Amino acid sequence: MFDVAIIGAGMSGLQAAVSAKQAGLSFCVIEARDRVGGKVWSIPLASGRGTADLGAAWINDELQPRVTAYVRKFAMKTISQPIDKTAIVQVSEDERLEFLFGVIPDFPPEEKTNLEMIRDHIEAESQKKEAPKLEDDQVSLDTYVRKLGATEKTCKMVNLWVRAMHGLESTEESAAHFIDYCRRNHGLLAARADDHTGGNYLRLQGGTQDIARGIARLIGEQHIYTSHPVQSIHDEQEKVTIYTSNGRIFVAKKVILSVPSTLFKDIKFSPPLPAALQERSSNTKLGHYSKAIVCYDKPWWRDLGYNGFLFSYVGPISIVRDTSVPEKNYYSLTCFVNGSVGAEWAKLNPHARRRAVLEQLAKGYNVDRSSELWRPIEFFDQIWKHELYSQGALSPIPALGHYVKFQSVHGRPVGNIHFVGTEYSDHWKGYMEGALNSGAQGAEEVVKALKVPGSRL
């Protein structure tokens, strides 16, 4: 019998295992996929020029201490997100604006003032050290900003924030949850920023999955059981028995469950989870979050004076970022194809998806058929809704009215089962940093529950 069985080898599960090992616990890590990392997944390019991140890609070495410590421990090389030159906004099918990156585009004065008012209000609310408000949880973010006087164009920008951050529409997420999400990530501006003040600052030259692989080595890969999907968890008070779909049985005193709450429905719990927790978890959503990555021989957009950043009210692409690694002669644009328009795009066949992305990029960057844009050396996409053990990204979003109502049960242990994941983090929720924080906290709960003497946690 293990002291603790950790279900899920995403970042929170891996960190829980590291912390359990440091505390002297016996443990195992049970993972459904054939790899570690969860939504942290880097794949090698056919060109041999490096790797591309299909999932989590950015860190901040000033604001995210846990992930930064691993990057330094494993001697990983970073690259800053380009923020010079010109950015682009697609306002409609026929209208585009160029603007200096980091400032509001040159919208008409009244629209600009309105957008600044809404942005500053949400930023100010997200800087307050207070609990989310019940009344704000009962309305969508869209309704909330309209009540503040947001114009239609400002509402489109707010919707873009939600698409980019959560893969949903602003009508699907409560104002309280969105504001509190920003609060846990240093505010709205930090959650959106590409410089040293925000969450999209640095990338890893070798890909973020190197962090997960490095942590797995620290754990000891003999403790990690990949390709073992968990089917059921039986809490028998003195022990917990875990059955996997490939016939393996694990027994432990405690379980740390590193699985998004939306996916609890896919596991049989005996006894069943408390009714309140079931209601909350069964009514969460994982966003329609996809990436299309277009690779080139050279960064043709930089030659045109662009830094690669583009955002669109139109779609299917919501946001584009330059994800090149010049040191590896690798140049790419990563397109986030999110929300409802992303859901429609995901229904297309691969050729049609590729065509839709290239056509939108051509309009956005205002280039014709002679452009290098039409001659990518590689093109691939990742639709997280189609990935069996993710079924969306980034972290689960509760139904309207559920965030405040069920806070007393969300993330709290149930019997011998403890819950971890980026959705539970008080710091950098939705990011790798948040997952690491939650994993460490879950392990600490188990150590205290087992009353381990001399623990180093």
TrEMBL record:
EC numbers on record: 1.4.3.-
GO molecular function: monoamine oxidase activity
Catalytic reaction(s) noted: a secondary aliphatic amine + O2 + H2O = a primary amine + an aldehyde + H2O2
Binding site for substrate: 336
UniProt-listed Pfam families: Amino_oxidase
Keywords: FAD, Flavoprotein, Oxidoreductase
Co-factor(s): FAD
Stretches that traverse the bilayer: none
Enzyme class, first EC level, given as a word: oxidoreductase
Positions in coiled-coil regions: none
Highest taxon in the source lineage: Eukaryota
Binding positions (FAD): 12, 31-32, 230, 423
Domain Amine oxidase: 11-446
Entry similarity comment: Belongs to the flavin monoamine oxidase family.
PANTHER family: AMINE OXIDASE
Protein name: Amine oxidase
Organism whose genome encodes this protein: Aspergillus caelatus
